[in-house]
Amino acid sequence: MTEIEQAGxxxxxxxxxxxxxxxxxxxxxxxxxxxxAMFTLSGAHVFPLYDxxxxxxxxxxxxxxxLVDVRHEQTAVFAAEAVGKLTRTPGLAVVTAxxxxxxxxxxxxxxxxxxxxxxxxGGRAPTQRWGAGSLQELDHxxxxxxxxxxxxxxxxxxxxxxxxxxxFRLAGTRHRGPVFLDVPMDQLYSRTSASVPEVAExxxxxxxxxxxxxxxxxxxxxxxxxLVLGSDVYLDRADCAARTLVEELELPVVVNGMGRGIFxxxxxxxxxxxxxxxxxxxxxxxxxxxxLDFRLAYGSFGGRDGAxxxxxxxxxxxxxxLARHVPLAAAAAGPLRVTLATLAxxxxxxLRRPGWTSWTAELRASDQAARxxxxxxxxxxxxxxxxxxxxxxxxxxLAEDAVLIGDGxxxxxxxxxxxxxxxxxxxxxxxxxxxLGAGLGAAIAARVSRPSSQVVLLLGDGAAGMSLLDVDTxxxxxxxxxxxxxxxxxxxxxxxxxxxxxxxxxxxxxxxxTRYDEVARALGGAGETVTRPxxxxxxLRRAFDSGxxxxxxxxxxxxxxxxxxxxxx
Length: 569
Hints:
By secondary structure, this protein is α/β, with parallel strands linked by helices. Helices cover 37% and strands 17% of the residues.
């Protein structure tokens, strides 16, 4: 049995002594860390946590935590992960022992890969019966250890407060990620008293001034620089510092993940539609807050059209996130907000600054040409419907603060190409782990976290099959979400590559024209199937106006292949 290390209060002052069962104490700590919602699927091992969340039999209004129960444990964890991304503070999920924990592993892994802060509390068979074969007895921490910052058992009720406090502090500390704790059932039901520590703002720390100076010197000698911003720029609250840096230095920039929205559509330095040219012809790439993985050609920049390989700089929020698989011209690890501000200050000390006007103009021209070419697809009258037409119609109806969620392969790839969020923190996708089925959990979290915003979930029909039963959760908890299914009757991300490799495909077809809208209606929501391009816009208006979970089942052309440059291998 793995036991958690003794965790202190981090020097914070006591906020008062609490008496209660283990659930009362855990929820009190979560509330101190800013948690407002608990996502779960019911299980007797964790009843005390529910009792505390709703405020006991008195059921005060509002309750201590909003309790959102779902239809699959992975949905609960996907929701907590999305809360962590949207609010930049750890989300909370609670699952029962045994299969409750094992069902959560894929979602925890996605949070681990994405650097999303969350705390997962699991039930555990009682200590007094351990080894005797209790219901759902399993030693969970060894399963979760590889994909968490900490996976441990809280052995006694007296250790719940310091352990849960440590879990939230650790999950929200750079580099962010999930933390898992399980509590034996007999200990969670037991009672004790404890002081709940106050939570102070963490110290940002100091940037690596010498490393930042090296980056400024590299910029001073660059003729074609490129800045790449990823999710950690948003998660580390460095989005304003990034925008200031770009505008002061007039750097061309591309974004991925939750870096999307830091610059609004049409910003003069944002050249996302010239990404291929920018990546292929730059002579210096400064990558901030995202790994040098398959999405960035594993850190290979330059080398196109006779250009030499580019120098690569990696800036991460923590040293263990810096790339080790490619040579770096410079690297810096530390708080991204401070690091980017320090780089802007260091640039002011550079005496001889190159001009990047022609390079930026080249990229901007390429970006604008690509957008002009987009127009034909975004307004295409093709029958069957071209996926891009869906996004051409959707873009016209999105509010500035709309939250967009992608869950799928080819259909969502088109969204990433054609739909640009207007604000930071308004785009969610599975990230580098690529775990389908995350969308309904993320939609639940988005509606809870952003009650006044449009929430749009974009689903491939393959991904829809993995989580669509949680429309029931949206209905029961009165969470209106617009869901758009791009229904091409196949696993498009696999079908076309398999044809390319083998000349045929197997295990890639789904039933054509499946009525996913009828699934939504059967679960208490609303929806309709769309087969004609001109009907997409009016259907979207009905969906947004409905005030209920509404699913648009759009039948799209299965022969349309997203023109991707990599399959992630």
